C-alpha cells in the first residue's frame, strides 16, 4: 500500500485557500450587483430611459415643472420584479442544486448572469424594456453564485458560520458594482462597454467552476483527505476514500459523523418544513427583507424629495449609499463570529452540538431584529443629513440579515436539505416582498408622495422579527431544564 506524502495535503490546503479567496472575490464583485439599483437608476435617467413618461405639470405657484412619477414607478417595478425573481426562483434553484450539484447549477447561473449583462449592454432609451428581463437574469444568476459558494464554509469546520456570513456580506457589498459603473459613466465610459466587460468575466467563472469547486457538493462534516475539482494528477491515497467527482464514498463520509450528526440526518424535509423553527424564521426574514427592498427601490425618489430635486445633492447621497454598501463584507463576519463563538469550548454535560449552535444563534437573531427597527426609524425621519446614519444601519442590518439567514438554516436543519430549505424560505419571503410595489403606489398616489404612514407601519411590522430569537431562546432553555431534571432524577 502506498503511503500518503505530505505534498498532496499541502496542495489540498492551497486549493482550499484558493477556493475561499476566489469565491469571496466572485461574491464581492458580481453576485449582488442588482441591489446597487439606486446608483444605476441615476445613470439610466441621465441616458433618458423611460423619459417619455415624464410630463409637464403646473406647480402651486404656477411654475412649470417636470412630473416624472410615472418614470419612477417604472424603475420601481423593474426592481420589484428582479428582487422577487431573485428570491422566488431560489426555490427551484435549491432543488436543482441538491439534485444535480455544483457544476450544473453554476453553469446555469453563469448563463443567466451573462444574458443579463449582455441585455444591459445592448439596451438603450429606445429599448428600455430590456431592463425587465436583464435585471431579473442578473439577480437570479447572482444568487446562484452565492448559493454554490456558501458550501465552501464546510471546508473550514469550526469557522463554518463565519465563512457563510462573510460570503453573504460580500454579496451585499457587491451592490457597489453599479456605483463603479456610475463613476465610470461620469468619466466617459459607456454602459455598453462596462457591461460587455462583465460579460467577458464569465470565462473566469467557468474556469473556477471546473478547477476550484466540486462536481456535486462539499459534505459536512468533511471526510479525511477530501479532494475536489479537476487536477493534473491524482492522490492514490485520497482516491481510495474519495470519489473522483468530488463526493465522498459512503464509508469515508460516514466515518467522521458523530452520533448527534447522524440523528440530524434522519429529519425529513417535511418535518423541517412544518417545524416552528422554519415558520418563525420565515417571518423573521420576510418582515425585514420587505423593509430593505422598499428602501432600496424608493431611495432615488426619496432623495429627490428631501433635496428638492437638486441633482448634485442626489448624486452625492447616492454615491454615499453605494460606498457604504462596500462595508457589508466587513460587517457580516461579526455575525458569524457571534454564532461560532462556542466552537472549541467545552459544552455542558449532555449538551449536543446542535443545541450549542442554536443557543449561539439567539444573540445574532436578536441583534439583527434590533438593527432593523433602528434602521427603519432613521429611514422614516425626513431629515436629509440623518440619511448617512440610515445608510450605515441599512448595510449593517442587511449583512447580518442574509448571513444570519443562511447560517441559521445550516445549523438548525440537516445539510442534505440546505438547498431546498434555503430556496423555499427565500421564495416564500419573495412573495411577501411583493407588498413593496403596492406600498410604493400608495405613497405616490393617495398619500401624495409622503411615505410617513407607510414607514411607521413597516417599522411596527419589523418588531414582529423579535418573536424568532425569543422562541429559539425558550427552546434552548427548555432543553437545558429537561437535561437538568433528567440528571437530578438519575
Structure characterization notes:
This protein has 24 helices and 2 strands. The protein has 490 residues and is mostly helical. The protein has a two-stranded antiparallel ribbon. It starts with 5 loop residues before the first helix and ends with a helix. 46% of the residues are buried.
Give the rounded overall mean pLDDT. Answer: 81
Shape: globular
Q: Which structural class is indicated by helix and strand composition? A: mainly alpha
Our estimate of the beta-strand percent is under 5%
Please write the string of helix (H) and strand (E) elements: HHEEHHHHHHHHHHHHHHHHHHHHHH
How many angstroms does the end-to-end distance come to? 50 Å
- Separate helix tally: 24
Biggest beta sheet attributes: 2 strands, antiparallel
Salient structural properties:
single chain; 490 residues; mainly alpha; 2 strands; globular; disordered N terminus
Helix-strand layout with pairing:
Layout: H1 6-31, H2 37-46, E1 55-58, E2 64-67, H3 69-88, H4 90-100, H5 102-121, H6 131-150, H7 160-173, H8 177-186, H9 191-200, H10 202-211, H11 236-241, H12 250-254, H13 259-265, H14 269-274, H15 276-297, H16 299-306, H17 311-325, H18 328-340, H19 353-380, H20 387-412, H21 418-433, H22 436-444, H23 452-462, H24 467-489
Antiparallel strand pairs: 1-2
Helix pairs in contact: 1-6, 1-7, 2-8, 3-6, 3-21, 3-22, 4-5, 4-6, 4-21, 5-6, 5-9, 5-10, 6-7, 7-18, 7-20, 15-19, 15-20, 15-21, 15-22, 15-23, 15-24, 16-17, 17-20, 18-19, 18-20, 19-20, 19-23, 19-24
Summarize the structure.
With 490 residues, the chain is mostly helical. It has 24 helices and two strands.
Amino acid at each position: 500500500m502506498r503511503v500518503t506524502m505530505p505534498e498532496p495535503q499541502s496542495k489540498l490546503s492551497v486549493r482550499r485557500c484558493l477556493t475561499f479567496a476566489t469565491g469571496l472575490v466572485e461574491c464581492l464583485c458580481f453576485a449582488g450587483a442588482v441591489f446597487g439599483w439606486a446608483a444605476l437608476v441615476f445613470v439610466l435617467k441621465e441616458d433618458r430611459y423611460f423619459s417619455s413618461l415624464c410630463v409637464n405639470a403646473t406647480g402651486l405657484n404656477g411654475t412649470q415643472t417636470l412630473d416624472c412619477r410615472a418614470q419612477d414607478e417604472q424603475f420601481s417595478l423593474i426592481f420589484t420584479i428582479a428582487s422577487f425573481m431573485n428570491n422566488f426562483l431560489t426555490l427551484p434553484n435549491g432543488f436543482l442544486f441538491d439534485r444535480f450539484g455544483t457544476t450544473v447549477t453554476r453553469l446555469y447561473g453563469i448563463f443567466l448572469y451573462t444574458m443579463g449583462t449582455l441585455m444591459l449592454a445592448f439596451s438603450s432609451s429606445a429599448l428600455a424594456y430590456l431592463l425587465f428581463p436583464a435585471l431579473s437574469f442578473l439577480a437570479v444568476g447572482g444568487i446562484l453564485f452565492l448559493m454554490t459558494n456558501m458550501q465552501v464554509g464546510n471546508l473550514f469546520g469550526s469557522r463554518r458560520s463565519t465563512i457563510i456570513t462573510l460570503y453573504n456580506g460580500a454579496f451585499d457589498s457587491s451592490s457597489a458594482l453599479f456605483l463603479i459603473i456610475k463613476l465610470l459613466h461620469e468619466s466617459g465610459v459607456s454602459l455598453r462597454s462596462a457591461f460587455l466587460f462583465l460579460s467577458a468575466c464569465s470565462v473566469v467563472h467557468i474556469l473556477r467552476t471546473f478547477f476550484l469547486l466540486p462536481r456535486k457538493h462539499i459534505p459536512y462534516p468533511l471526510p479525511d483527505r477530501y479532494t475536489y475539482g479537476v487536477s493534473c494528477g491524482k492522490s492514490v491515497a485520497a482516491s481510495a476514500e474519495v470519489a473522483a467527482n468530488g463526493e465522498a464514498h459512503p464509508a469515508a463520509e460516514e466515518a467522521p459523523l458523530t452520533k448527534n450528526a447522524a440523528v440530524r440526518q434522519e429529519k425529513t424535509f417535511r418535518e423541517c418544513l412544518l417545524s416552528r423553527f422554519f415558520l418563525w424564521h420565515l417571518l423573521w426574514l420576510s418582515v425585514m427583507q420587505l423593509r430593505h427592498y422598499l428602501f432600496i427601490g424608493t431611495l432615488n425618489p426619496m432623495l429627490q424629495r428631501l433635496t428638492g430635486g437638486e441633482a448634485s445633492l442626489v448624486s452625492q447621497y447616492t454615491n454615499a449609499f453605494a460606498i457604504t454598501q462596500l462595508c457589508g463584507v466587513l460587517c457580516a463576519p461579526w455575525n458569524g463570529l457571534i454564532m461560532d463563538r462556542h466552537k472549541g469550548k467545552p459544552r455542558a454535560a449532555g449538551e449536543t452540538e446542535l443545541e450549542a449552535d442554536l443557543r449561539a444563534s439567539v444573540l445574532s437573531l436578536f441583534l439583527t431584529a434590533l438593527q432593523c427597527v433602528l434602521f427603519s426609524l432613521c429611514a422614516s425621519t425626513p431629515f436629509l443629513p440623518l440619511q448617512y446614519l440610515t445608510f450605515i444601519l441599512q448595510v449593517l442590518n442587511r449583512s447580518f440579515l442574509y448571513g444570519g439567514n443562511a447560517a441559521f438554516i445550516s445549523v438548525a436543519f440537516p445539510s442534505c436539505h440546505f438547498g431546498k430549505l434555503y430556496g423555499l424560505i427565500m421564495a416564500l419571503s419573495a412573495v411577501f416582498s411583493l407588498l413593496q410595489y403596492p406600498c410604493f403606489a400608495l405613497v405616490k398616489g393617495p398619500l401624495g408622495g409622503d411615505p410617513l404612514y407607510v414607514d411607521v407601519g413597516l417599522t411596527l411590522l419589523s418588531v414582529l422579527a423579535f418573536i424568532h430569537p425569543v422562541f429559539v431562546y425558550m427552546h434552548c432553555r427548555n432543553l437545558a431544564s429537561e437535561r437538568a431534571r433528567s440528571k437530578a432524577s438519575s
